[in-house]
Amino acid sequence: MKQKVALSLIVFLTFQTILYAWGEHSLGTYPSLRADQNLLNEKKVKIESLEAFLIAEEDSLAAFLEDKDKTYSTQFASYPLLPNELKFKKGFGKAELKTKFLMALRINPNFKTLSYVQTLPNEKYPNCKKLLPQKITVFKDNSFWDGVNFCSLSNGQMVHPIDVIATASDEPDYGIDIGLFEDNGSEYGKIYGFGQQSYGNPALEFSSQTPFHIGYYYENFVMFGLAGYLKKNYPHFRAQQFLDLSKFAFSKGHDYWGYRFLGWGLHYVQDLTQPYHSTVSPNASTLGLMWVNLKSGLGFETSMNQTITLLSNRHLVIEDIQRHSLVDINLNKETSHPFILAFKNVRNDTTYPKFDSSYVVSVVAKESNSKAKILDQAIVDSIPEKFVDDPNYSYDSHNGNENIYTYLLREDPKSFDQLSPSLIDLFQSFGSHTRNFVKAGMVKN
Fold this sequence. Notes:
The chain has 445 residues and is mainly alpha-helical. The protein contains 18 helices and five strands.
């Protein structure tokens, strides 16, 4: 019976749609970082290619990665030691250096690392050479990024650190963690050592990144007892890995890559501030889920499918409202909007303990998990029932349904007033954890 429940839970965690934590991380990263006067005063840095960084630091980087591999194996319970054949070593040819480095990090070797800036909707980058999203993602369908402004940059150009970090904070959603498990159908996934995908649908391209962007650390002992694979997750590892790389790059004088690695790591911290990325199913009791799972194991799938639909709908609704409201706020240049002020609330930063290696899990994920029931209830109370409490309606704006934000503006604008306090609370946390993480990485010569 325990095995049947576990198998059903795998199905329960398999969403058939594209789910982000926050749509366009840069929408929140820019105001969060611009509230830090010290970071605003940082000088621009010179862009260099990843290949130039690797050539310059080949020897010391090999030793650094070897040491970190040993550290991570004791620091993270779900971390498998890097297979010997993937270790970064001195002597790789220039043509293969980048691929060998990406594989030593165990990220998608096809991930694109050209330099660019992702601007806010109302801002124009000087002398912008527009870049199509297919130039920076690994996906075939890039319609999600229609209308987002990407400006290509060249090696040697000068760029402000905030632009680098904010742009990079969105990059892990462009394919860094796609296909990394042995059942994802990629050749590299078969040799990375992560085993089979712990949750999410291994057959769906985008879903293969799920265990790296969603972290369940605070489910109760019954849930973990029935489904121990929920502990096999990697957001905290990725955040630490890129934070360490950032410090390494800064220590060697490669400030551009220091900031860019920092932005990559920041993404995973920000993902965990979204309660649906830290909690299996808010407001659903363990006994209730077990009953649903039991019925599914016996062949009665209706309750399971309805549960999946409701959870997916609420996740998508909050994501769409967040993204589209922030786009509108920026286009209208509402610099004093409560959402923008929430990101900038630096007074909130000191309410958290000093950043250390446990911060991502013990502070960020724990806080997010504690807010999950509140957010879920706020969504149910404020959004029309059709979208969030009807198990027979599947909301997904990516598949042509009307965007919830547009609908509410026209039909039920008061919904925003009811939901706004929950969003403001989350945005304050997003801003504070963003600044605290970035400060932790700002160790330069």
